[in-house]
Design a protein that fits this description.
alpha/beta, FAD/NAD(P)-binding domain, single chain, 631 residues
Length: 631
């Protein structure tokens, strides 16, 4: 090994970029005098944006957060040991890129024009975000102290070898990097289609039909969906929104303002006809178009470090959710009482004192809210929010479309009306819950059943449904496509059967008894869930094959087992190595989406104490301390 310690970071997307920023911030303190360090970033995609946020994708694909709500920088609310290095949000950077060194003009004229016109409350394209992330990486590189050198390799890591007490060999296409420490910051990864897709894949092959399994929409091959073809779509989340954009505007159609409000769609004639449904039966809630009227609620109040939990394995619904639901209610009512006191019948102090005393599940809390909030529409109903179409039964497809359009219009109206800013208070609570949950789980593991059904299942879905929805204009576009007859809603609890007699995908919902839709194509509009045993990443495949990484496998005392598909790491983000007796590997770390840290988001809303920022700082400080000793 060289006398200079070496750190190799595999993945130069937002997570690798965020880690580099924290290395630059902490190195002056933690690297001793005269200690040098070489850092290598390796990614086959352009550094900064990585694969998901690369420039080379459709300009129709946008972020689902407002530009002012996207940052890569720590701030005064980040709870960490390292120094705060403030930096601009996407909106602040876009307002005047030249004011933020190191400035480099956008090579793409369309992106430059977009950045110039981008409002703080606008939703940038992913290509514009790519420019921001490229700048963040270059700024972090420029802030590295003189004793830290950076090398960037646009390449794929094929293999990682080396003994735990010796140098690690990072095998690229035509060279091998020798490293003292290696970090896998791989981001969102593909997996081969799972066993649940075998039936539709075989059916489509035998009948000459088209089936698109879960995929990152920007990379999906949609050419098999023919103009005018009836396409059944499972899923109404963000992948669905991207799919719709690519199959409409992406095929030459256009949206235009309708006199009196709303949009009208002018088709190109190349669009398929979409029949879409899901478990809930409705698209994600649109993003709010306003800010809080009152102060930001002081989180956490009920769900934080002081939460009392049982000594045995934890059940999400029994042990966590009551406090989590109460925290969401606190965020909601804090904004209602502070931002709209005229719609409340008690003072905030009176309400909060009683709210503190009452458990979430119980008549006392219900009675308190009824007395303090006169209008039922101002009361938080989490069950109705989660399943808005529960019990829906209609008599015709036309009635179902009418009901769903009314739902979309109501959601748009509520999310654009400042009178309902309490919804944003609930949103802030959800962000707080997410951050504290990531911190709490390593010390209080859930049962296998609860991890599968509640944590990775229901909670992840509910969080995304409420907090990760698209911009409002996307719902306006869905309404326009519905009016144009190119989008039909199928309803909740969607069922898709493989109809051998007709050679079609037959879709139905209990909301419309006795009615079926036959499609000649099926699209599963879900983001692919990473499965380690089916991973598309060559490095993870090699490590798994060699027995050097392990998948999270949970087993309850009664034998019930669950495989999450995630790579096991310890609380300090070290890779668990089966060859070391399932102990942490001292020289290998892994961060982000495919790991059991369960903190995939690499950028965040300012001043929300994002868990990924905290984790980046802790890992950077640990690595620098260890590498200083390697010198």
């Amino acid at each position: 090994m060289s006398a200079v310690p070496v750190l190799v970071v595999v993945g130069a997307g937002p997570r690798g970029t965020g880690l580099l920023e924290r290395i630059a911030a902490n190195a002056p303190e933690l690297l001793g005098p005269g200690v040098e360090l070489d850092v290598h970033l390796v990614d086959p995609h352009p550094p900064g944006g990585g694969r998901i946020w690369r420039h080379a994708q459709s300009p129709l694909l946008r972020m689902n957060s407002m530009a002012e709500d996207v940052t890569m920088f720590t701030d005064e609310r980040t709870t960490m040991d390292g120094p705060v290095r403030p930096g601009p949000s996407l909106a602040e950077w876009a307002a005047d890129p030249a004011a933020h060194p190191p400035y480099r003009p956008a090579e793409d004229g369309e992106v430059a024009a977009e950045l110039h016109a981008l409002a703080p409350t606008g939703f940038a394209t992913r290509r514009a975000q790519s420019g921001y992330l490229d700048w963040v990486l270059r700024r972090a590189a420029g802030e590295l102290p003189d004793n830290v050198r950076l090398f960037v390799h646009q390449d794929t890591v094929r293999k990682l070898t080396g003994d735990p007490d010796g140098p690690q060999r990072v095998h690229l296409s035509d060279t091998v990097l020798l490293a003292d420490r290696v970090v896998l910051a791989l981001g969102h990864l593909d997996s081969a289609p799972g066993p649940e897709t075998a039936g539709p894949r075989d059916f489509a092959r035998r009948h000459g039909r088209t089936y698109q399994p879960p995929a990152f929409t920007a990379d999906a091959d949609l050419s098999g969906l023919a103009p005018g073809e009836r396409v059944v779509v499972r899923g109404l989340g963000l992948a669905f929104v991207d799919l719709v954009a690519l199959l409409t505007e992406g095929r030459g159609g256009r949206f235009a303002p309708r006199p009196g409000g709303g949009l009208r769609y002018h088709p190109s004639g190349r669009e398929p006809v979409l029949y879409a449904g899901s478990r809930r039966g409705v698209p994600y809630h649109s993003k709010t178009g306003y800010r809080l009227r009152g102060p930001v609620p002081p989180f956490p109040r009920y769900f934080g470090p002081d939460l009392e939990l049982p000594d045995e394995q934890v059940d999400f619904r029994r042990d966590l959710w009551p406090a989590m639901a109460k925290e969401i209610g606190f965020g909601y009512y804090h904004e209602l009482f502070h931002g709209h006191p005229e719609r409340t019948a008690l003072s905030w102090a009176e309400f909060l004192a009683a709210y503190d005393r009452h458990p979430w599940y119980g008549p006392e809390r219900v009675e308190l809210v009824a007395a303090a909030v006169p209008d039922p529409e101002d009361r938080l109903d989490l069950e109705r929010l989660d399943r808005p179409l529960t019990g829906l039964r209609v008599g015709s497809p036309a009635e179902l479309q009418q009901h769903l359009r009314a739902h979309l219009r109501a959601d748009l109206a509520r999310r654009s009306d400042l009178r309902h800013s309490a919804d944003l208070g609930a949103f802030y609570a959800l962000l707080s819950l997410y951050g504290h949950l990531v911190h709490l789980l390593p010390a209080h593991p859930l049962t296998a059943r609860s991890t599968a059904a509640h944590l990775d299942g229901w909670w992840t879905g509910f969080f995304s449904f409420y907090a990760s929805g698209p911009p409002g204009f996307r719902l306006e576009q869905l309404l326009a496509l519905s009016d144009a007859g190119l989008l039909h809603f199928l309803g909740p609890d969607l069922r898709v059967d493989l109809d051998e007699e007709h050679g079609t995908f037959r879709a139905s919902s209990p909301a419309l008894p006795g009615h079926h839709v036959h499609g000649t194509a099926l699209v599963d509009a879900f983001l692919p869930r990473h499965a380690l045993d089916r991973t598309g990443d060559p490095l993870l495949r090699q490590l798994l094959r060699d027995g050097r990484i392990d998948e999270e496998r949970l087993t309850d005392p009664d034998g019930h087992a669950y495989r999450s598909g995630l790579v096991r790491t310890d609380p300090d983000a070290r890779l668990i190595d089966p060859a070391l007796g399932h102990r942490p590997h001292p020289r290998r770390t892994a961060l982000g989406a495919p790991t059991t840290t369960r903190a995939p988001a690499a950028f965040a809303r300012p001043r929300t104490d994002a868990p990924s920022f905290r984790q980046n700082d802790a890992v950077a400080r640990r690595l620098l301390t260890e590498l200083q000793k390697e010198d």
